[in-house]
Amino acid sequence: MPENGKKLSMEEIDVALRSADEKHVWEAAEALGEYAKLNPDAIWPLVVKHGSSDNDEVRSAIATCVLEHILQYHFDRYFPLVENIIRSGNQRFAKTFQICWKFGFAERPANAKRWEELLTRIRELESNPR
User: Fold this and answer.
1) Domain count, the chain
2) Which domain holds residue 58?
3) Is-contact 52 88, C-beta < 8 A?
4) Mean pLDDT in runs of 10 for the chain (130 residues)?
């Protein structure tokens, strides 16, 4: 990982998120999170890919450094995508979402209600697997 302040490319971030080195994973997630406010469309494919990882550490990094901030700034656009991914049966992405905290637009009462309803649905699915 560059320590010279150079921005990482999406390809470098993708590779680092697959690293066995947790420091690289978290640095890559932080770099990806810098795009959450101004360019979420560019990073969304990596959020879904790595938010669905079988690696708990990667999912935690994506949840706390990226996904919760996308939802903080762009709730109306991305929350339905999150719901669809989870409703399609992606249990790993559901676990990623469960780690997120509500900030910004996600804290608005109607949005917070939708958030809590999705968490309830996830818990129901976990307790009644198909």
Assistant:
1) 1
2) 10-127
3) no
4) 71 96 97 96 98 98 98 98 96 98 98 98 84
